[in-house]
């Protein structure tokens, strides 16, 4: 059972052994609302969390700016996770009568189980993080895929139908990307950004995505753009000209097709699984004129 708040901000900061101004910086980073000085809004758990976050700095594990950045990242990620959990539990509210308040109560009652689950996933993902390149910039394959005619598709669906369609899209895309050795960087509704260590894995992901949705009754196919080159990494996201090129190739791609940058085509030259067809040279905003290449899977 959650303890009732019984401390003001000043009392909580003092109990944690932290100056109030510093405590407020952490609470802001963690997404706490601004409260009046006399409001009893803090619990023993809030005090313990503040001790823990500032303790990382005292032990020399991280510098203060990095500790605050970590707090912001954790807050955003967990807020997104909590929102998704509530949406998933209430997605069938019409069938089982569960509303948002009921969903929150159900999830709160299982806090200890969720904490254990998050701990297990955390340990697994730390192992994955250790294996990643240490440099902030490294060479990677980058792919964008988006749903064809999504705006029109949105007009023809209710909010509930559209939510379920996107959920199915996200699940299937994640399954294909991970099974073929890639990583999903982020989902943006009807679009996914993914990476892979080499051009072959990138191409297998792209052609697998096309095949998965080519004859889908609800999703009218995908368009995929691929690029290969230097990528900058920051807070779980990727940036740089390689990412921009993959995105801009996607915009130029025909439905149910994969368009790749010359570097990807060069890396795939002679690969037994793929056909490569050079198209007419094109002007792509922000890049020198280049010859995009149409990628097809020989097996399909």
Give an overview of the whole structure:
By secondary structure, the chain is α+β, with helices and mostly antiparallel strands. It has two domains: 9-131, no CATH class; 137-297, Alpha-Beta Plaits (2-Layer Sandwich), CATH 3.30.70.1230. Helix content is 52%, strand content 18%. Strands 1, 2, 3, 4, 5, 6, 7 and 8 form an eight-stranded mixed β-sheet that branches. Strand 4 (222-234) and strand 5 form a beta hairpin. The chain starts with 8 loop residues before the first helix and ends with a strand. 24% of the residues are buried.
Q: How much helix is in the residues?
A: 40-55%
CATH architecture of the largest domain: 2-Layer Sandwich
User: Which of globular, elongated, flat, extended, rod-shaped describes the shape?
Assistant: globular
Secondary-structure-derived class = alpha+beta
In total, the number of domains comes to: 2
Output the helix-strand order: HHHHHHHEHHEEHEEHEHEE
Q: Provide the CATH topology of the largest domain.
A: Alpha-Beta Plaits
**Uncertain ranges:** none
Major sheet details: 8 strands, mixed
Assign the CATH class of the largest domain. Answer: Alpha Beta
Radius of gyration: 24 Å
Termini separation (Å)?
Answer: 56 Å
β content, as a range?
15-25%
Outline of this structure?
The protein is α+β, with helices and mostly antiparallel strands and 300 residues long.
């Amino acid at each position: 059972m959650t303890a009732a708040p019984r401390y003001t901000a000043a009392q909580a900061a003092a109990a944690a052994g932290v100056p109030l101004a510093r405590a407020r910086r952490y609470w802001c980073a963690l997404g706490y609302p601004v409260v009046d000085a006399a409001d009893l809004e803090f619990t023993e758990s809030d005090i313990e969390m503040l001790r823990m976050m500032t303790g990382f700095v005292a032990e020399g594990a991280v510098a203060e700016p990095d500790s605050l950045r970590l707090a912001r990242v954790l807050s955003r990620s967990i807020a997104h996770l909590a929102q998704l959990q509530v949406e998933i539990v209430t997605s069938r509210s019409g069938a089982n009568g569960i509303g948002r308040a009921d969903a929150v109560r159900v999830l709160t009652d299982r806090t200890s189980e969720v904490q254990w689950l998050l701990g297990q996933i955390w340990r697994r993902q730390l192992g994955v993080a250790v294996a990643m390149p240490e440099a902030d910039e490294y060479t990677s394959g980058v792919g964008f895929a988006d749903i064809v005619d999504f705006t029109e598709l949105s007009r023809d669906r209710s909010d509930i139908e559209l939510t379920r369609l996107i959920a199915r899209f996200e699940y299937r895309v994640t399954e294909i990307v991970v099974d073929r050795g890639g990583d999903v960087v982020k989902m943006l509704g009807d679009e996914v950004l993914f990476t892979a260590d080499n051009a072959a894995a990138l191409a297998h992901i792209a052609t697998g995505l096309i095949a998965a949705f080519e004859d889908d009754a609800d999703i009218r196919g995908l368009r995929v753009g691929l690029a290969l080159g230097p990528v900058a990494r920051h807070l779980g996201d990727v940036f740089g000209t390689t990412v921009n090129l993959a995105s801009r190739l996607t915009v130029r791609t025909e439905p149910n097709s994969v368009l790749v940058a010359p570097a990807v085509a060069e890396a795939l030259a002679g690969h037994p699984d793929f056909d490569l067809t050079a198209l007419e040279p094109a002007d792509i905003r922000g890049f020198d004129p280049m010859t995009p290449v149409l990628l097809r899977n020989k097996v399909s």
